[in-house]
Every structure is written in C-alpha cells, then in structure tokens.
Design brief:
- The chain is of the alpha/beta class and 647 residues long.
- Among the domains are: 7-168 and 221-276 and 284-290, Aldolase class I (TIM Barrel, Alpha-Beta Barrel), CATH 3.20.20.70; 315-401, Thrombin, subunit H (Beta Barrel); 408-505, no CATH class.
- It is built from 13 helices and 35 strands.
- An 8-stranded parallel β-barrel has the order 1-2-3-4-5-6-7-12, surrounded by 4 helices.
- The protein starts with 6 loop residues before the first strand and ends in a 25-residue tail after the last strand.
Length: 647
C-alpha cells in the first residue's frame, strides 16, 4: 500500500549489499543502493543478484530497498534501462530513485518511483508537479529551510524525503556542471570529479587576493540531529543519510545514531509509527562525530548561517584534542583530557595549512591532563602550540568492526491446551499471527512452579531467529508437565508459520498513477538546466505543456559562458561582503568590493555572479567538449529472469 505521512522512515545508504544488510540490522527502515549501471555513484555498482539478496534480508523486517537509477540517459541507453528496471522489479525491489523524466514515458512494471534530489525540488510549484505526475516520494533540495518544507507538505500528498546527515553538495543537485566543464566527467552521469573539494584562489575585480589555496566550495557535513522534531512537524516522513561511497563504520554509526533519536521521538508522537518492524540493540554508543565528517552544520534548515564552509580541508580532521606542549625525538606531548589509545589516528595542520596524519603506536599518560604519544613516524614540522585532532578512535572502531547490532521483532506468545495436546499462538508487532498445535499425552506437574518456569523458558528460546518474546501468556486450567522436546517443536512450528505469514503479508508499495489530464509544468520553456538528454524526456515535457526545450549541458550545444554551478552558498556572504549586510570591507590594500569575484584553480578561472533576489551564487564557465568520450555510465549485459550477473 502507499504509505501516508503517519509512517516515519529512516533511510540509510548502501555501497553494496553487505553494507545494506548491516544498515537494516542497525535500524534502517529502508536502504538505497546503486544497480549495475545508471546510478549517480558510478563507482558503487551492484549486480541485480546482490540487490535481490539485500531485498530478501530487508523484507524479513518489512523494510524496503530503493535502487538509484538517477543519471540522465542517452537515447541509445533507454532499452537497456527498461530491461534493467524489469529485472529489478523481478528482484522485488520496492522503488526506483530517478532523475530522468524519460523513464515516465517508458513501458515499466508497476514499481514505485521516487524523484531524486537531482530533479532540483526547491519550490512548491516543482514539488506539486512531481506529486501529480506519479512520484510517490520526492527528495527535497538540501538547501530548503523548514518553513518552505512545511509549505510543500501542505501543497502535496506524496512522501517528503530530506537529507539529515552526511556530505553536502555545494551546488543545487542536478545543477552542477563544473566537473564536466573541468574534466569532461559529468555529475549527472555518475562521474563527478568533486571539483568543489579542490583548493582555489579567490580574487576581487581588481585582481587582489581575498584568499589563497582555500577550499572555497567545500561545505561542512550535514547534521540535522537537533531539527528532527521540527522536520517531522513540517511534514518530512523520510529521513535520509548520505553516503553510498562511505565505509561500513560510518553507515553503522550514523544509522544507529538516528535510529535512537527517531525512536525517542516516536515514544512521544503516538500519531506516528516506524515504517518497518523490529527493535535494535547495539554493542556501542553511537557517536557520529567519530566517523567521517567535515565538522557539522544544519545548512539552511533554519535560514542562512555564517559558518557552513569547510574551507581549510575537505578531509576528516576529527575531534580536537588539545595543543602540543613538547616535541621530543620520538614523541609528542599533548595537553588533553581525552583518553587516547594505541592505534589511534591523529592529525594537525602544518605550516602550509595542509592536514598531516599520524598513527599512534603507543600512548603514555603523564597525568590527567597530559599524554605522550609515540607516532609511527615523527612529522618534520610539528611544534609547540600546534592543535592536534583525533580522526580515528581505535577502540571505537574496533567495536564497529565486529558484529555491533542485533535486530529483533517483538512477539507475544499464548500457550493453551487443546483436547489432545497443546497449541501456541505467536503474534508480531503488526498483529500478524501464526498458530501451531501438537498432540501429546498430558501429565499433571508434580512441581507447578518449576514446571511453569521451564515452560516459559523454553517458549522464549528464540535464539538466532528474527524474534524476541516480549510477553508469554499461559491459558491453561492447571499446570501440566510439558517435555522440553514438545515445547521446542511447538515453538519452532509456530515461528516457521509466522515467518511464512509475514512473507505473504508484505506488500510492495504501489506505483502512483499520474493525474489526468496531465499536469502542467510550472514553466513553458526549459534551458539546459533541466537535463533533458533523450527523446522520451522531451516527449514527457511536451506532454506537460513545455514548448521550448533545450538539450542537456552534456550535449555541448550551449555557447559561451554559462553557469556551471548554481549554489545557495555565497562567498560574498562568507567574507562579510553581502550587500544586504555590508557596503564593503576595508582591507590592507583598500576597499574589497563585492562583485565580480573570480575563483582560480590552475589555468581555470571561474567568474562568480550573484543573484541576490533568490540569494544564489552562479559559478560561470565555458562549455567544453569532453576530454573522454561519454558513453554509457557502465556497460551491462542483461540476462533472463533468475540469471542475474554483472558484465
């Protein structure tokens, strides 16, 4: 069935099927994963067979699996896309996350469709349109503030998905072409070269340097931990963790962190419920700051903030420990009250402002505020008063490298007698029940107390199954002696039947029909920013009232200088040069004017233009022919049903 917003969904990333399984085990209600091709993370492909394995595990808990098919497609790829969608449907995938509207014009199975963040959903009108053309869930732009999200929720009926954790793309998703402009690798084709994480020099209009070798387009990482209640109240129902390229400890840690936060909220919001079954316990205390992050920001959720950039480094520097007080021949002393461990990773910024990492071989505690570390290799230029960070807590990571979570579905058990034996009914969290009976001779127990304790003990022995007994009721007239073998057989039969009942009860979410007559697109003309790359997408927009449709940036038909990145991040604002807040700043060489600015990386120069009405920055560049020929994101071979294999 189509889910209403009364369900809250924690959506976790999966680099591969094993990561996805661990995300489910650590409390995810759904996971998203790339297929063998056509995903926006080309370096994280997965076979349909592996996805089917993940689906089987997820569905045990009535959790869902979404596959990202969120690139734009060449015309000569459309048949391959169609075949892949059918194979994913046969593998029982729950939904597809898509960018290319051409898919909606194709002969697809009735699989649910989600509008990817690359569809650039940042207005009420765009959200309404996607709601009306058949999308069940739409991924809102990361840049949206909470009041705008509330307006979108009030104007739509589909589920709203919002990024709550992980890396932030500086550009509006789907509106970034700087990778293609610089390297010929298209982000909309899954090949982003992450030009935003490079160091740049920033100049004013007279060529004066405002900043040199800074990562001016690199953002801190997203963390909406403090905003979850506000997001729920605004209408968000799916809470998404970024990270299909991230390692397994990150996935475990972030998923567990938000599972605990959402479960706490659900205890106080009886009108909402989880969208999957099971309760998770952990061997560790989630601490998202201990796995990869570039420091934290809630971005624009509560309006524009002054400190959202990670200009010093795009790498993970970790938690600040304290300052160096002494440098010896083979040791460094640090003034810190943080307990360090052998095997920790620490780092610092050298005189060139580059992040230098060290592995700690051994730690010696000198007192409660001073620790001496012996690194694997002494750095050349560390000195007193250097601030040291820890970016790998060895003890914490050891916990995450082991089995670190157990997920169990709570069941109630009712044991009762029948004419020629005993019966057991097992009921799960959803109210689904299974029953088993066993014929056996009845014997009155000599010791009723001991017999009852033994009966309860053996009924609760659910071991390695997905279930845990939360309640056991005995509906019997007198206490019988029931042999352990009888109880065990009855319990096994009932649980086996419950597993079968749950499998039959699971329904994949249905595809939403498009409204009739076809909804009108909010505009009647589209530039290259709409990413229309094939005839089916062109047909889609024509059907919805668009008259003029430019080809995608990747078609190389635009001339001259165009925006290669559109972003809410503003370098005028971050340097105190916003005309709404300042008239200019007096610097060493005189007044630094606001516009134009230029970003420089090697021989590449990008002019910055500022559109103050929507509060956006446009990074301008020349369209280039690709350095490498743009073929399909990944060649794949299609196989008959049941014969899934990579090429």
């Amino acid at each position: 069935m189509y889910k209403t917003r009364r369900h809250l969904e924690l959506l976790a990333p999966a680099k591969n099927a094993d990561f996805g399984i661990e995300a489910i085990n650590h409390g995810a209600d759904a996971v998203y994963i790339g297929g063998p091709a056509f995903g926006a993370r080309a370096k994280a492909p997965n076979t349909v067979a592996d996805i089917a394995r993940l689906v089987k595990h997820a569905h045990r808990y009535h959790a869902e699996v979404f596959v990202a098919l969120n690139t734009i497609f060449h015309d000569n790829e459309l048949e391959g896309v169609r075949q892949l969608v059918h194979q994913l449907y046969e593998a029982e995938v729950d939904a597809l996350i898509v960018q290319d509207m051409g898919l909606l014009e194709m002969d697809l199975p009735p699989i649910q469709l989600h509008a990817s963040t690359q569809t650039d959903i940042r207005t009420v009108e765009k959200a309404q349109f996607l709601d009306q053309v058949g999308f069940s869930q739409i991924v809102l732009a990361r840049e949206l503030d909470i009041p705008t999200i509330k307006k979108i929720a009030e104007a739509t009926t589909c589920n709203l998905e919002y990024f709550i954790h992980g890396a932030l793309c500086v550009a509006f998703s789907g509106q970034c072409f700087i990778s293609h402009a610089h390297t010929g690798r298209s982000a909309n084709r899954g090949e982003c070269s992450q030009e935003c994480r490079l160091p740049y020099t920033l100049e004013d209009q007279k060529g004066r340097i405002i900043g040199k070798d800074k990562h001016f387009l690199s953002m801190k990482d997203n963390d909406q931990s403090a905003n979850l209640r506000a997001l729920i109240d605004a209408g968000v129902s799916s809470f998404k963790i970024e990270g299909r390229y991230k390692d397994l400890p990150y996935v475990k840690n972030a998923t567990a962190h938000y599972r605990q936060l959402l479960d706490e909220i659900l205890e106080h919001y009886p009108e909402y419920q989880k969208s999957s079954d099971g309760h998770t316990t952990y061997t560790f205390t989630p601490q998202p700051e201990k796995t990869f992050n570039r420091s934290a920001t809630d971005y624009f959720a509560n309006g524009r903030q002054a400190d959202i950039g990670a200009f010093d480094t795009p790498k993970f520097s970790g938690e600040a420990l304290g300052k160096v007080t002494k440098v010896g021949k083979d040791f460094i002393e640090i003034d810190t009250d943080v307990q360090l461990h052998n095997g920790d990773g620490v780092c610092f910024f050298d005189v060139h402002k580059e992040l230098v990492g060290l592995r700690v071989n051994t730690v010696q505690a000198l007192n409660t505020k001073m620790q001496r570390i012996f690194p694997n290799e002494m750095p050349a230029d560390i000195r007193n008063n250097t601030l040291i960070y820890r970016n790998r807590d060895h003890a914490f990571m050891r916990l995450l490298e082991k089995d670190s979570a157990t997920r169990k579905i709570h069941v109630s058990m009712t044991f009762y007698e029948i004419r020629d034996g005993f019966a057991l009914t097992v009921t799960d969290e959803q109210g689904l029940s299974a029953n088993a009976q066993i014929a056996t001779e009845k014997q009155v127990a000599n010791d009723a107390t001991k017999a009852e304790a033994s009966l309860r003990e053996h009924l609760s022995k659910l071991g390695s199954t997905d279930f845990k007994a939360s309640e056991i009721q005995l509906e019997i007239g007198q206490m019988w002696f029931v042999p352990a073998s009888v109880v065990n057989q009855l319990r096994r039969d009932a649980i086996e039947q419950l597993i079968h009942t749950r499998a039959l009860a699971y329904e994949r979410p249905a595809r939403r029909p498009a409204s009739e007559p076809p909804a009108l697109y909010p505009e009647d003309s589209l530039s290259y920013l709409a990413n229309v790359y094939n005839q089916q997408a062109r047909h889609f927009y024509h059907k919805h009232g668009v008259k003029i449709i430019a080809k995608a940036y990747e078609a190389n038909e635009e001339l001259g200088e165009v925006p290669v990145m559109i972003t809410k991040h503003c370098l005028r604002f971050s340097h105190g040069l916003c005309p709404k807040e300042a008239k200019g700043v007096i610097g060493v060489q005189g007044t630094v004017t606001a516009e134009p600015m230029t970003l420089i990386s090697g021989n590449d120069r990008y002019t910055l233009k500022f559109d103050c009405k929507p509060c956006e920055m446009h990074v301008m560049g020349q369209i280039r022919k690709p350095i490498l020929k743009l073929g399909p994101p990944q060649a794949i071979t299609f196989f008959p049903k049941g014969a899934y294999s990579p090429n």
